[in-house]
Amino acid sequence: MTAVPENAERTLFGQSIAVFAAMSGPEHTVRAANPAFFAAIGGADRERTGIPLADLMPELADQGFLDLLDRVYRTGEPYTGRDARVVLGTGPDAREAFFDFTYEPYHDADGTITGIRMIGVETTQVKHAQRLTAEHRALLEQIARQAPLTEVLDGMARSIERLAPDDVLVSVLLADPDGRHLRHGAAPSLPDFYNEAIDGIATGEGVGSCGTAAHRREPVIVTDIGTDPFWTDFRDLAGRAGLAACWSTPVLARDGTLLGTFAMYHRTPRVPRDTDLALAHLFAGTAALAIERHHIEQAQQAAEARARAAHDELAKTVRSEQRLRAAAEQRAAESAELAARMRAAAAAQAAAPHPEKCLLGGPKGCTNPAELKVADSWGDSAWGCPAHVEEAIINVRSIFIASEELGGLAAYLNR
């Protein structure tokens, strides 16, 4: 392959969104590159040519890309990578990126390899979108199968912390039914002492980012906790937790009811990008769906519990009524039996007006002395022992003491 003139390379790739760089010699000295290349690797501070790629991008040393360049330069065989992950920059400015790229050797007129041309397309946004879609789908599936709310919110927080291009700590607070206080929902990466301290904070103007967002029903972006007046009462707490920025979004039900807040914390002062705000909006909506579903399930469970309690109470009442009815039927049967005994006893004593033995003992008989005379409203009377007489009085309404010589019923009751 013959060399491509430098001005032709610039013409072809100068305004392209494709990443292009031409490198010469075994040290891969950057001879030419388009603006997209410099923007991808770190912007204006790296817009330099005439130096080896290893010096321009020292972070590549342990990532394998320089070794691939050496192999292509040595063998003359092109190399193509798909969704190759690379960490660009160092320290707090480092970012994860993904590229589809090709390394192609180019030759001089004699066919000798003199350098390598790199052409690529950054796929970072596509890769992140794929991850986001997969993570979001998994959360929706959790909600659909009615996973516990704490499990859903904790998984959501961890997903965002993985997806965000910068270090972020996520917190979800849940509103009390009256909307006046916020309770801990999920915050897997925040210190326990911090979560405990803000559990139950009031909603109101100036109460940190979350209390204010809940009060206003709109996002509250605090880019520097160290200077923002909303954090006056919580500044020391945030400092101990290593927090420097907090962007809070209210979580609202479809009817506008406050469900909670969704917060993204950072360890350095930060201004959100459009992608940050879009991520917060998306997952605040997901949190709203999960919390509303949880409230519906709680209401259903409470209604089912009340229905079960009412059913149990009704069953208890029916059982009591059945017992009372059975007892009444038993008393009616006993009353009928005693009435029959009275009639039998009256007939038996026709020949003996005052028998010696109790006549109210039924088929089994009774050997106790006949001490009391009882009668009913039909005129039947009989003599019996005190025990059988009491049984008759209790179970047969029309029976009364008829022993005149003993003072009747009053004398018997006052004995």
Q: How far is the first residue's CA from the last residue's CA?
A: 135 Å
Instruction: Please provide the count of β strands.
Output: 14
Strands of the widest sheet, in order across it, are: 8-7-6-11-10-9
Continuous helix count: 12
User: Mind summarizing the main beta sheet?
Assistant: 6 strands, antiparallel
What percent of residues adopt helix (DSSP H or I)? 40-55%
Task: State the CATH architecture of the largest domain.
Answer: 2-Layer Sandwich
CATH topology of the largest domain: Beta-Lactamase
Low-confidence runs of at least 5 consecutive residues = 1-16, 407-415
**Topology pattern, helix = H, strand = E:** HEEHHHEEEHHEEHEHEHEEHEEHEH
How large is the share of residues in beta strands?
15-25%
Taking all residues together, what is the mean pLDDT? 84
Oligomer: single chain
**For this structure, what is the CATH class of the largest domain?**
Alpha Beta
Class from helix and strand fractions:
alpha+beta
Principal-axis shape: rod-shaped
Find the CATH superfamily of the largest domain: GAF domain
The number of domains is 3
Notes on the protein architecture:
It comes from Actinoplanes couchii. This is GAF domain-containing protein. Pfam families: GAF_2, PAS_4. The protein has helices at residues 6-13, 35-41, 53-56, 65-75, 124-144, 149-163, 192-198, 208-216, 235-241, 274-348, 386-395, 408-413, and strands at 19-24, 29-33, 79-88, 95-107, 113-122, 169-175, 181-186, 201-202, 220-222, 245-252, 258-266, 372-375, 381-384, 400-401. The protein folds into three domains: 6-122, 2-Layer Sandwich (Beta-Lactamase); 127-300, GAF domain (Beta-Lactamase, 2-Layer Sandwich); 328-413, no CATH class. α5 (124-144) runs parallel beside α10. The model is unreliable at 1-16 and 407-415 (pLDDT under 50). The protein is an alpha+beta fold.
